[in-house]
Amino acid sequence: MTSALQAQALGKRYGKRWALSDCTIDIPAGHVVGLVGPNGAGKTTLLKLAGGQLQPTTGGITVLGERPGSTPAQLARVGFVAQDTPLYAALTVAEHLRLGARLNPRWDAALARERITQFGLDPAHRAGKLSGGQRAQLALTLGLAKRPELLITDEPVASLDPLARRDFLQGLTEAVITHELSVVLSSHLVSDLEKVSNYLIVLVDSRVRMAGKVDRLLATHHRLTGPRRDPVRLPADQRVISVSHTDRQSTFVVRTEAPIHDPAWTVSRLSLEDLVLAYMEKPAENRRAAVEVQR
Question: Which PROSITE patterns match (predicted)?
Fold first, then answer.
């Protein structure tokens, strides 16, 4: 499978603080990839390294098979929409489009005009006077009109109201279908990722805890509830992700390819948010068991 982004033992240090360390990741091309993780996991640093905005301290990274920012041609293949949708407040919508055309050799002026019309953006309005949703749509238009092969979006809807989020994600979905883009969408809002992503990566402490196609991940993870039981007594093919106990009951989230036939368990499916939280949040008392099972 062709990779949109690969990193091996990647690290970025600011002074004495490591914002990202020992990150190994392989993001496939041809997918809308949801990237999720807690604050401080290294998501934004990873994406800025992928966009060529930062240089790594350790390790290596390639985007579309090349070093990020290595040539103007490589930069033209990657679009980037940041969380704060950075625009020039004093420039009008039309001036942003003209600037985009000057800076991007593959600029699609027809696509830019179509999106501006579709979302009701007045070309004469200054960016500083636009609403949050309008700024997000303008930023997405600038990213899409450069006709990238990979579009990187870092928390693009975090500050938007629900209606603006819906419109942004709908526009992104339409662009993916029309232009066959690869997309990396970083977000804390798992419900939004669930709407548009077909591949998911959970990043915790700069390490990949889970990665795969969403439908496959949901099919192979289960919640088991039943009489209290030590996790080491579970079958070897049931990888324990998280554990919780009461005096008489145990609840496990497990990953397994095999059917679960133990009549002692009530087996239920997980939502995508349940699954993400299971990988992100484990009580301290359960960490040892989970790590041992993963070895």
Answer: ABC_TRANSPORTER_2 (PS50893)
